[in-house]
Amino acid sequence: MFEIRPEEAADWWEVEALYDLCFAPGREALSSYRLRDHIPPVRGLSQIVREDGIVAGAIRFWPVHVGTADALLLGPIAVHPTHQGEGLGGYLIRAGLEAGREKGWNRVMLVGDAPYYQRFGFTRLEGVEMPPPTNPDRILGLDLVPGAWQGITGPVTRWNRVG
Ligand SMILES: CC(C)(COP(=O)(O)OP(=O)(O)OC[C@H]1O[C@@H](n2cnc3c(N)ncnc32)[C@H](O)[C@@H]1OP(=O)(O)O)[C@@H](O)C(=O)NCCC(=O)NCCS
Fold first, then answer.
1. 72 forms bridges with which residues in the sheet?
2. How many Å apart are CA 77 and CA 84, to the nearest integer?
3. Does ligand 1 have an atom closer than 6 angstroms to the CB of 20?
4. Domain 2-158 coded CATH 3.40.225.10
5. 59 in ligand 1 pocket by Cβ < 6 Å?
6. 61 and which of 19, 42, 73, 76 could share a cystine (Cβ 3.0–4.6 Å)?
7. What separation in Å is there between the alpha carbon of 121 and the centre of ligand 1?
């Protein structure tokens, strides 16, 4: 039985351990991490999943600016290898997108594998710049309200948003 609830401060290191397990070493050298350093994840949207108390999955969202526009940065998301392919990742993404929309966010972006994220409606963002060496084909976005990415271009920058 999975227990899914918002991540709290006390969960931080268990989620980090899951990410260390699921991602290649050196994940924190990726440029997307520079958008997250010393900025808390968006409260209420970042979720942790446990099965019998043991962490099975986690998703985090961060606030960023794209040019002058507000956006959610999805990720990291990871599901423990013993639970991959059971639909948990898809559930966390869909639930996170819905919760983001309900909380008034208009658009979400991520840096990731298009073959996975296109099933949720993510498409390549033209003119949205992550610091090099990000592969532009991995910069993906989704409208939470119709047309939200229209005309939004520029560098992705840190947003030290409270709450
Ligand atoms: C990516 C991840 C979060 C997906 O979670 P999950 O619970 O296994 O996903 P789901 O069960 O909802 O979906 C499984 C499907 O996604 C596909 N998939 C998983 N990772 C994929 C990828 N990188 N590219 C393309 N498809 C992928 C699986 O092949 C499977 O396809 P199917 O539905 O056709 O069988 C999980 O595999 C994971 O933690 N991977 C390691 C960390 C990672 O890569 N995170 C994403 C960063 S971009």
1. 63, 108
2. 12
3. no
4. no
5. no
6. 42
7. 15
